[in-house]
Write a structure and sequence with these properties.
single chain; about 300 residues; alpha/beta; Dihydrodipicolinate Reductase, domain 2; six-stranded mixed sheet; 11 helices; Gfo/Idh/MocA-like_OxRdtase_N; GFO_IDH_MocA-like_dom; Putative dehydrogenase; Gfo/Idh/MocA_oxidrdct_glycsds
């Protein structure tokens, strides 16, 4: 372990944990992957072995070995474990949505605040260089009246996330899985989302959500993971006095995760606990999801 490297434990061993988190943590200069936790001993053993980490099925043992935890588990599991980790003084890299419901998100944020630990939510799109430059340009220009996000994918029709139980659950699906990305970018581009004006869930778990922003702008989000669209459409647009500007998803998840780890390591090193994508962002997004669900009935 290098000087000042953060010892990070990975909670979860699924496809996202093994393809993005584990290699990202192992290869980043500011972090070392110290331990891997799973409820299934063979899964923990298998992933830990690849990265010379310690496998464990015991949370207390996990907490003893690390300074921070990265989560790659379903929202309900994260909401159960992460507050305990915060209380044990561990900094947190959280998956989105940060909990299965708004109450769980608020409990998690309260635990993080009380413990005074750093937190970041895996809003990977926000950390890509292209997104950062686009948002800088959009916010400097100002004068936007509206915008929209479209994320149309067949990810739940087949492939490595198609067996994900929480994503297949009607309470999860597109709204909970890709909704946080869409709402986060619209909010960052057009100003804070103050409420959901309308929401509809149609066939193929196709969501249409109308949002109100501080300052009077409105935006729409169209979301589904159950349409055979190839390649996936994932784009955000804003329009107003400065014309029309679009952002399409670019770069890899690995590149975005590296940028996230840069910010995370810097936060921990400097004792900073606030960030545009910290746990409170997770609560804000959970509130939007909660309102959309309620309006869609």
């Amino acid at each position: 372990m290098g000087f000042g490297q953060l010892r990070v434990g990975l909670v979860g061993t699924g496809p996202w944990a093994s393809t993005v988190h584990a290699p990202g943590l192992a290869e980043h200069p500011g972090t070392v992957l110290s331990a891997v936790w799973s409820r299934r001993p063979e899964a923990a053993q298998s992933l830990a072995q690849v990265h010379d980490a310690v496998p464990t099925t015991d949370l207390d043992e996990l907490f003893e070995q690390v300074d921070a935890l990265a989560f790659a588990v379903p929202p309900a599991v994260q909401a159960e474990i992460a507050p305990r980790a915060a209380a044990a003084g561990k900094h947190l890299i959280l998956e989105k949505p940060i909990a299965a419901d708004l109450a769980g998100a608020q409990r998690l944020a309260a635990a993080v605040t009380e413990a005074g630990v750093a937190s970041l939510v895996m809003l990977t799109l926000r950390f890509s260089q292209q997104t950062r430059e686009w948002l800088d340009g959009v916010t400097q220009a100002g004068g936007w009246r509206g915008g929209g996000a479209r994320w149309l994918s067949g990810a739940l029709l087949g492939g490595r996330y198609a067996t994900s139980a929480w994503r297949q659950d009607p309470a999860g699906g597109a709204l909970a899985d890709i909704g946080p990305h869409a709402f986060d970018l619209l909010d960052a581009a057009l100003g804070p989302i103050t409420g959901v004006l309308a929401a509809h869930r149609g066939e193929n778990d196709l969501w249409q959500v109308l949002l109100a922003h501080e300052g009077g702008a409105t935006s729409t989000a169209t979301l589904t993971l159950r349409l055979p669209v190839q390649p996936t459409v994932a784009e955000v647009a804003v329009y107003g006095e400065q014309g029309y500007r679009t952002l399409s998803r670019s770069g890899t998840a690995a590149e975005a995760y590296t940028a996230l780890l840069d910010d995370f390591a810097a936060m921990v090193a400097s004792g900073t606990t606030t960030h545009p994508c910290d746990v409170h962002r997770g609560v804000h997004l959970a509130r939007i999801i909660d309102q959309a669900r309620a309006l869609a009935g």
